[in-house]
Amino acid sequence: MPSTPMTLTGRPLVGGAAQGALLFADVGLSFWGGVDPVSGEVIDRHHPLSGQHMAGRVLAIPSGRGSCTGSSVLMELISNGHAPAALVLADVDEILTLGVLVAHTLFERSLPVLCIGREAFGALRDAAFARVEGQALTLFEHAPDSDCQASNTLAEPVPGASLELSAEDQAQLDGQHGKAAQVAMQLVVRMAELQGASSLVTISQAHIDGCIYTGPASLQFAEQLVKWGARVRVPTTLNSISVDQRRWRELGVDPALGEPASALGDAYMAMGAQLSYTCAPYLLDSAPKAGEQIVWAESNAVVYANSVLGAHTQKYPDYLDICIALTGRAPLAGCHLQAQRKARMIVEVPPLEDLDDAFYPLLGYHIGALAGSRIPLVLGLQNASPSLDDLKAFGAAFATTSAAPLFHIGGVTPEALEPANVLAPGNAPEVIRIRLEHLYDAWCELNSANDPHVDIVSLGNPHFSLSEFAQLAHLCHGRRKHPDMVLAITCGRAVLEQARDAGYLDVLERFGATLITDTCWCMVGEPVMPPGARTLMTNSGKYAHYAPGLVGRLVHFASLAECVDSACTTTASGRLPRWLQPAIQQEKPAHV
Predict the structure, then answer these.
(1) Would you say residue 1 lies in a domain?
(2) pLDDT at res. 66
(3) Which of 76, 271, 340, 371 has the fewest Cβ atoms within 10 Å of its own Cβ atom?
(4) Total structural domains in the chain?
(5) Is residue 590 pLDDT above 50, yes or no?
């Protein structure tokens, strides 16, 4: 960059002034699973900022990605003093912005958030120091001598935005329905203004992701709402919490986590939410229908609801989800609008044969990284007839590496049965052709373990479905796991009882499997994860990505059948799936 300071202008999502050393990456970052909520270290071991600490620095990333719980992690960092000094984005990111807004509401602490657009964002690459003041971003080669007094104030509403409120909306905003509804409506209105929504929409149900315990601030937020008399206005389900609420003591979980994590689930139930505790609410009888306006959080659930069920939801941040459940109203923006559900890119998949269940999470993981915040239309799978479990695995991995709330698969997903229907008129989307070598590279990325030994097999991320239980029972029938091996499955309580009634649990218990409800592998740690375990195996692209940062273990990623075989032998075969073998011209190890 030039030796003289460079000044850019952008849109302040949260106003204020701050400065610091610039921490830049051109890859989106999921704060949940990618950033330690206590220290501010980037723990996503696949991210270019891995190992960096963001406290006191100006963090510049294109956007968030992955989990809706990023808002909660950022709020924790603001509350404990380990947040970045300011956040500079290429694209508007509701998840991260909402975390700042809630911290301002709850703790009267904040930080500037400035969106400068993709064209200007590249200019930050070579800067060493940055100053944010209102709408201005000044870049320096080194720290300037002059001081910038930090101050954080909420940005003014979007210029020219006009939000139409109903009489009932206004009554809630005026406090006629109590403090909790008033604060919730204030945050809903604030987010609607940032999104440029002209009105709010009535929603029929909610799924809450904010019940995941990220630290004291997450519990304080929920308990404050309860003290203010919060009650949900629509049927509301709860995501996985951070512990198996019924068995965390039996499983040896430290009370320092078990007690507040369980209390957080209780707080949301005190607001009237159902005791569901699953990251796969689409497996419940209450799953929404096509065209239904809902508010769901949890990244894989959002993507599945939009893409596979055809329901309409945005990728809602933690805390905004409960605010909408308390008011019954959501910003009429994003995927709530049919025009915003169109594909912005086309991805062509080559014809492949002998596909197994490892194909779909791997493909979703790769396409998510290509898509960023764009909605893709995937072509080439119409004859493969992916199952609902395949689409679940694809969507979870896609949501891990992407910020998009929706994907279309031509001839498969409901809105893309005729692919032309999901392309915007007059739009010429980018076309990307996937080669098998690209999938091989993704395979090597997810297979981070070099040691063929396996200590634990992790299944159920997202939560296991009844059909996955059936498949696993078939693979385990008449076999027993190795005595030194742990094979554990996380699932929702409702599906667990269905599997019990179907007789699948008898087979799995004879095999030696461990069943865990209420929580999910993304929240499971020691001692459920054996302290001496060095490597794990999973068929989840999502967990293969997050596990190295979350639990410090390297990963073997493979099909469900390979997972069962390794549970019996404690060894990963390292074999490439048959459909992937043509990607290499000569024999080479699968784990690179």
Answers:
(1) no
(2) 86
(3) 340
(4) 4
(5) no
Same domain, yes or no, for 19 and 135?
yes
Task: Give the other-Cβ count within 10 Å of 80's Cβ.
Answer: 16
Q: What is the DSSP code (8-state) at residue 307?
A: I
Return the amino acid letter for 48: P
- Residue 129 corresponds to which tokens in the numbers above? 């120091």
For range 286-302, the mean pLDDT? 97
Strand pairing class (554-557; 200-202) = unpaired
In which element (H, E) is residue 497 found? helix 493-501
Q: The domain that contains 416 carries what CATH number?
A: 3.40.1060
Distance CA 386, CA 392 (A): 10
Mean pLDDT of the chain: 94
Q: What pLDDT, on the 0 to 100 scale, is given for residue 158? A: 41
> Which member of 63, 67, 276, 465 is catalytic?
67
Containing 120, the helix (H) or strand (E) segment is helix 118-121
Query: Distance between CA 546 and CA 462 in Å, rounded?
Result: 13
CA distance 198 to 506: 54
Owning domain of residue 351 = 342-444
* Average pLDDT value for residue range 512-540: 94
**How many angstroms separate the CA atoms of 81 and 40, rounded?**
9
pLDDT at 426: 81
End-to-end Cα, the chain, rounded Å: 36
pLDDT in tens, 62-91: 999 988 899 999 999 999 999 999 999 999
Q: Which residue has the tokens 């290509």?
A: 370
pLDDT of residue 541: 98
Q: Where are the alpha helices (DSSP H) in 157-295?
A: 167-173, 179-195, 216-227, 255-270
Looking at the fold, whether 175 and 308 belong to one and the same domain comes out as yes
Backbone angles phi, psi at 538, to 5 degrees: -150, 155
Which of these three, 109, 144, 179, is where a domain ends? 144
Q: Active-site residue 67, yes or no? A: yes
